[in-house]
Amino acid sequence: MSETKKIEVMEAIHDENERIALETNQKLTGGGVFCVNVMGAPGAGKTSSVINIIKGLKALTPFVIEGDIESDLDTRTLNGMGIRTVQINTGGACHLDAPLIRDALDKLAPQKKSVLFIENIGNLVCPAEFVIGEHIKLLISTVTEGSDKPYKYPLAFEKADAVILNKADLAPYLDFDKEFFIKGFRALNPLAPLFMVSAKTGEGFWEVAAWLEEKAFSVLQGEKA
Amino acid sequence: MSETKKIEVMEAIHDENERIALETNQKLTGGGVFCVNVMGAPGAGKTSSVINIIKGLKALTPFVIEGDIESDLDTRTLNGMGIRTVQINTGGACHLDAPLIRDALDKLAPQKKSVLFIENIGNLVCPAEFVIGEHIKLLISTVTEGSDKPYKYPLAFEKADAVILNKADLAPYLDFDKEFFIKGFRALNPLAPLFMVSAKTGEGFWEVAAWLEEKAFSVLQGEKA
């Protein structure tokens, strides 16, 4: 197969995805649902971070779409906590896409004044390339992954609207170079807030929840105006 | 674009990749080079594990191909230690493929009686789907990523010829459920050895290096016979 043919196919897939994502985004905004695309490497603590943020919400009702290649471990945890959650299993695909989210939303039907967390596949590469209907991208990085991540996975850091640096409770046992991390992150993304948190202790998540609700209100009120 | 057309394109890409990977594998075997495809999530400690294994090698000369989306941080480290290393930057692609390795090998030209480590892109999904010419796949997982990884990223664990469980030095500060991890891993892969290691302290890497040299000799001697 020629390189040109491959590129043509990839572009067509991307274009179709963007069209559906835009439709979903407009539908969510109109329905009073603020949508957060949660991205991060395997084991970054995406689910436990979402749970901690949800605990800090004051005005919005949470809904979750869980993306995994296989298994429904996290969905069972979330539903067990009374958080309405729908599972997507991609069966191999390395990221969620807009058609998958459109279908999952039919099942989930989030109500007005809510925030929808979409937990993407654990992957620092592919999810950053595909919009799925979100208002913001929340990137979860960790001190255990090392301080060079913004240099090695630039697109995810560049596109993030906020970055959580998780597992702060382990920092005393690591050689994490925070200055080097921030330098790399800021070179790509000068404005997005950075939150130091620990999903184990809950440290730092009130600030994330407050920031997120403020952001949600500005997007959803913009719609009403 | 139709689903059928998409699948056709993907299959053609896979077939071409497999053909080139087989050629590379035969050339390496004939040339006395044992090739290890090193896979793992972002920040699993792929480079530091490779360095620790290299320290434990007794008879084989190491060569490295470093795969990254961007940056050459690890290649500079390795070359600075006197380990001949060539960098591949995929510029966005989420895994290495056989054509990229074929081209990098022309530059690296590993000698007889050597082991070639190919550090794949930090990603627990896509690299497991593409052979690149390797004799074995070495998967690096970590206790900090959590014990549910075999359940969530089954293909990488299923295809691994050996699994390293890294960052063992952090285990005392975590709720890592080793039994649950091993149960999930063994359901997918009953035979591959599992090594507990710490790339920080060096713990456990002599065993990995010894196992790897034994494996290399059996593959390369099979060629001579």
Structural account:
The structure is a homodimer of 225-residue chains. Chain A is α/β, with parallel strands linked by helices. The first copy, chain A, is 44% helix and 19% strand. A seven-stranded parallel β-sheet of chain A has the order 3-2-4-1-5-6-7, with helices on both faces. In chain A, helix 7 links the parallel strand 6 (162-166) and strand 7. In chain A, helix 1 runs parallel beside helix 4 and helix 2 crosses helix 8. The radius of gyration of chain A is 17 Å and the shape is globular. The termini of chain A are far apart. The model of chain A has no long low-confidence stretch (mean pLDDT 95).
What is this structure's SSE topology?
The structure is a homodimer of 225-residue chains.
Chain A: H1 3-30, E1 33-40, H2 46-56, E2 61-68, H3 73-80, E3 84-89, H4 98-108, E4 114-119, E5 136-142, H5 149-152, H6 154-159, E6 162-166, H7 178-188, E7 194-196, H8 205-224
Parallel strand pairs in A: 1-4, 1-5, 2-3, 2-4, 5-6, 6-7
Helix pairs in contact in A: 1-4, 2-8
